[in-house]
Write a structure and sequence with these properties.
single chain; 744 residues; alpha/beta; Amino acid/polyamine transporter I; Rossmann fold; 3 domains; 10-stranded mixed beta sheet; 10 strands; 8% strand; disordered N terminus; membrane; transmembrane helix
Length: 744
């Protein structure tokens, strides 16, 4: 038996403190140090209101995130939410851009850490009286950024945490000291009256306030990274929502008083905060701290900046690697990325790939500021998507609502989503290059998906839906399987298989009973068709009750049963049609079912089973394959559905001639491994059989199995469903056979 490469699970080792640390590490410090200046220059003192309003939008967004994270406590964040609710193509698009946004954010924080780290070292050298001209070389910043990224990557590969809690505590303490120093300075200045520094409060007017919101919202981004590592959080239903709210509250408790003291006592006499920020927007926080605390204040801000950039880099690396891990498990990125290290279950390859991309972008990005704006734009768009997804999840999860429900629904997702869209539009207008970069990255992702990942990703998605039928409901689908039954002896087996394909909780099983009678039929003169139909209908009801399936029944009158089945399938837009067959005719003899196939545009499943056969009793399933057929999606769906309801053992076999060369035999084994992995995740046996009679080889192994699944393709309206191979297998074994044919 071969193990499933996806079976490794990460342990839940991050508690509330650690999860909050991920959010605080990403939010606090870096954003306000980089964006406070441009906000003050645009809006004047009212930039404080801009940050407060952004805090409200952030809290609304965190509530929507928290609701979905409690419902889907897995790593991946917005990507995981999209995968549960949207198509695999849409989920890939979201995951691809969010991964990029987190990587670019990591690039910015790596460069920021290098920049402030060098300032710190240069100031120390100046205090010591050392003249070190090499410290002013331009190459030092990217070199230090790459070295720091590599160091953190090694750290993330050696330990399971990711919050950087020691550094977090350090920077919070430093910011606390700066704020207390500012409050002390306020009490000493003009008897504590600093109101003049706040006039005019709305220096930039309403437009300036809105612009400041657009520039600074990304300073509160980071709470979403907690959802991105949700698969490693203990008691996620409670800890993820709490950590998100706590991290935002901690950030606002630091930001609001810090911004207030900067306005009150951070400028020289006669200078407004707007003019001071316009002169040096990037250094306004450090300059303000030096104004009210002297050189000590300046040093404290530099230390806070170094710690903030470090923790933000660590949090974004940690979260981005988990987004890549989730995408890889869904086969929307190479499978190797999902491999976990032995013992600690750390996604080592994912960390390496993510960190390598950060290092490459540090050197390759020609316009780092435009890339940062693109990152902000992407985050805002995905936040809006998250609000929309939370509405869909709430509407489609009435039977199993999320453990955490955000208050004030639906105002929270509506107001939050519209606010994020508005800020995203502003970002796109303010920095047009941001949209261009996002489009280029999205185009590259679309090309890679279609050429490398599409088939495997779609098969994995089909398997996921089959294994977890709730996904159909979350995506707004109510699949319908049509089951025409003429022989009551097959009713139990047919209904059980239909329920396996489409559980009643997410779809519908429609049992069709056809009264076969000529067009000029007179029920009074010929009651036999009616009586036969009543007997079948009664047995269908009894069989449904025995199987515990709430099936619907439909009785129609028709002269041609096959034409009637096709008509009903079209009328009700059935996803699949399940047909029963007592025997598959010998070669050369056409069957009515084969004529029906030319009229159906649905998936078709044909069951040939003995009387009183029960699906639940069968555990060994044999799947003969000759290569990649057009029925892969239906096969994956069927195997996933069967595995959901029973502990089945699946075996894929491929028969090759005895004179097959060693190279071709090796290639056949590799192709069979790939096919088994695509169709059943690799959780099965695989065997390549050297035999000159493929039918005899399959029959021999079929006699040891409880069920054989054969896939056939519908090539055209005149193509027979049951070719020589299918007919011979069915004729030489009494083993139950399921023949599947995917819609044309």
């Amino acid at each position: 038996m071969t193990s499933d490469p996806d079976s490794g699970n990460q342990s839940r080792h991050i508690g509330l403190f650690g999860a909050t640390g991920v959010g605080v590490g990403a939010i606090v410090g870096g954003g306000i140090l980089a964006l406070a200046g441009v906000s003050f220059a645009t809006a004047g003192p009212s930039a404080i209101i801009a940050f407060a309003l952004n805090g409200v939008i952030g809290l609304l967004t965190a509530l929507s995130f928290a609701e979905m994270a409690s419902k889907f406590p897995e790593s991946g964040g917005t990507y995981t939410f999209s995968r549960k609710v949207l198509s695999v193509e849409s989920a890939f698009t979201v995951g691809w851009v969010v991964w990029f946004a987190s990587i670019v954010a990591a690039v910015l924080y790596a460069l920021g850490f290098a920049h402030f780290g060098l300032i710190f070292l240069q100031e120390l050298a100046a205090l010591a009286g050392w003249d070190l001209p090499w410290m002013h070389q331009a190459w030092l910043v990217p070199a230090l950024a790459i070295a720091t990224t590599v160091t953190l990557a090694i750290s993330l590969m050696l330990k399971t945490g990711g919050g950087g809690n020691a550094a977090n505590v350090g920077k919070v303490v430093v910011f606390g000291v700066v704020i207390l120093g500012g409050l002390w300075a306020m009490t000493r200045q003009s008897g504590g009256d600093t109101s003049a520094a706040f006039r005019p409060f709305f220096a930039g007017g309403l437009s300036g306030l809105i612009q400041a919101m657009g520039y600074s919202f990304i300073a509160l981004q980071g709470f979403d990274l907690i959802a991105a590592v949700g698969g490693e959080v203990k008691q996620p239903e409670k800890n993820i929502p709490r950590a998100m709210i706590l991290s935002l509250v901690i950030a606002l408790l630091i930001y609001m008083p810090l911004l207030s003291v900067i306005v009150a006592v951070g400028t020289t006499d006669g200078q407004s905060i707007a003019s001071a920020a316009a002169e040096d927007p990037e250094g306004i926080v450090a300059i303000a701290a030096r104004n009210f605390l002297g050189p000590t204040g300046y040093w404290l801000v530099i230390v806070a900046a170094v710690l903030s950039m470090f923790t933000a880099l660590q949090a974004n690396l940690f979260a981005a690697s988990r987004i890549a891990l989730a995408m890889s498990r869904d086969r929307t990125l190479p499978n190797a990325i999902s491999r976990l290290s032995k013992g600690k279950n750390i996604p080592t390859i994912s960390v390496i790939v993510t960190s390598a991309l950060v290092c490459v972008l540090v050197l390759a990005l020609p316009d780092v500021s435009a890339a940062g704006a693109a990152s902000s734009l992407i985050f805002l768009v995905t936040f809006a998507i998250a609000h929309w997804l939370s509405v869909l999840v709430r509407q489609r999860s009435e039977a199993s609502p999320p453990p955490f429900l955000s208050p004030w629904y639906p105002a929270v997702p509506i107001v939050g989503g519209l606010s994020c869209i508005g800020l995203a539009i502003f970002q796109g207008i303010a920095v047009p290059q941001a949209g261009l970069i996002a489009v280029i990255w999205l185009s590259l992702g679309g090309l890679l998906f279609l050429t490398l990942f599409a088939r495997s990703a779609r098969l994995r998605d089909v398997s996921s839906v089959a294994s977890n039928p709730e996904l159909s409901r979350l995506r707004g689908n109510t699949p319908l399987v049509l089951v025409p039954i003429a022989n009551p002896q097959n009713a139990d087996a047919m209904i059980a298989l239909a329920e396996t394909l489409v559980p009643a909780a997410v779809g519908r099983v429609l049992l069709q009973n056809i009264v076969v009678a000529p067009h000029d039929w007179d029920p009074q003169q010929d009651p036999e068709p009616t009586e036969r139909s009543h007997a079948v209908q009664r047995e269908l009801i009894h069989a449904s009750v025995r199987q515990g399936v709430r099936a619907e029944t439909l009785t129609t009158v028709a002269a041609s049963p096959m034409e009637e089945i096709a008509r009903v399938a079209r009328l009700h837009r059935c996803e699949s049609v399940l047909l029963g067959l007592s025997e598959i005719a010998e070669e050369g003899v056409a069957t009515p079912i084969e004529g029906l196939l030319s009229r159906l545009d649905t998936d078709v499943v044909v069951l040939r089973a003995p009387k009183n056969w029960h699906l639940v009793e069968q555990q060994r399933i044999l799947v003969p394959v000759a290569g990649r057929g057009g029925h892969d999606y239906l096969l994956t769906r069927l195997l996933g559905s069967l595995a959901r309801n029973q502990n089945c053992e699946v075996k894929f076999i491929r028969v090759v001639p005895t004179n097959t060369s060693a190279a071709d035999l090796k290639r056949a084994k590799k192709e069979l491994d790939r096919l088994a992995y695509d169709n059943f995740g690799g959780r099965c046996e695989r065997e390549v059989v050297s035999h000159d009679d493929a039918i005899a080889a399959v029959v021999e192994r079929a006699d040891e199995s409880g069920l054989v699944i054969l896939g056939v393709q519908r090539i055209g309206p005149r193509q027979k469903l049951f070719g020589r191979f299918t007919r011979q297998i069915a004729g030489q074994t009494k083993c139950p056979v399921i023949v599947i044919s995917r819609r044309g």
